[in-house]
Amino acid sequence: MRLYFLLFVSILSITSAYGYSKKIDKGPGGDKGANVVYPTPPISNERLFYVQRTPNANTIVYDLNLNSDGKLNTDQPVKVYWLKYAEKGQKEELNYIQRKFAYGLNTKALNKGSYDIRFVSYKKFPLTLIRGEDGKYHIFASVAQKQVILNRIFVKIEGGSFWIPNVVYVEVKGTDPETGKEIVDRFKP
Predict the structure, then answer these.
(1) In the chain, what are the domain boundaries?
(2) Integer Cα distance of 104 and 123 in angstroms
(3) The pLDDT of residue 37 is above 50
(4) Torsion-angle region of 26 (φ positive above 0: left; ψ -120 to 50: alpha; else: beta)
(5) Are 117 and 106 a contacting pair, CB within 8 Å?
(6) Which of 42, 105, 107, 126 has the fewest beta carbons under 10 Å from its own?
(7) Beta partners for 109?
(8) Quick check: 137 and 131 in contact, CB under 8 A?
């Protein structure tokens, strides 16, 4: 499993463009010396969560996939795409390798309109797509030993190689549905 996660992170690093050069003092994980600006994707009613990582600001976005009638696409409930901030900020579809080996999702229907969601490259981090008490669909994940609405994942990489990057940590942020407070946790895969 660790090898698949490392492959996921490697492909994230290699398949996106390098070159966003605006400097800031701290990255999203609070690390000094970060040289990449990580913009927050625009607000969307369909937004579930997004993934960002070093070395650039390109962002993988996971949105609710609705049919033309506004109902959930039950065959593929989540759509995944790039926001290429390191280029012109354009939206791009994932290519085959990215979809099948890195950022894509495996989805399994459960009961009452809920879905088990797993990254194709890291199945150890279970996600659940379900309608929340607010009537909207959300991705729920276990963060800091609490079920939260997932908002963002950040992967910090320092060196390594294409096949085995040195993942310093993965930071996961979510919202406690009961209190509305942000919950943050870090782990090393």
Answers:
(1) 2-187
(2) 11
(3) yes
(4) beta
(5) yes
(6) 42
(7) 115
(8) yes
H helices within 67-184, ranges in order?
96-97
pLDDT digits (tens, 9 = 90+) for 71-83: 999 999 999 999 9
Angle at 176 between CA 180 and CA 12, to 5 degrees: 115
**Assessment of whether the complete model's pTM goes beyond 0.85:** no
- Per-residue pLDDT tens digits for 95-111: 998 899 889 999 999 99
Q: Sort strands 56-64 and 78-84 into parallel, antiparallel or unpaired.
A: antiparallel
What's the longest Cα–Cα distance across the chain? Answer: 47
Helix, strand, coil percent content, the chain, rounded in steps of 5: 10, 50, 40
Q: Where are the beta strands (DSSP E) in the chain?
A: 47-53, 56-64, 78-84, 90-93, 105-109, 115-119, 122-131, 137-143, 146-160, 165-175, 182-187
> 């463009």: which residue's tokens?
17
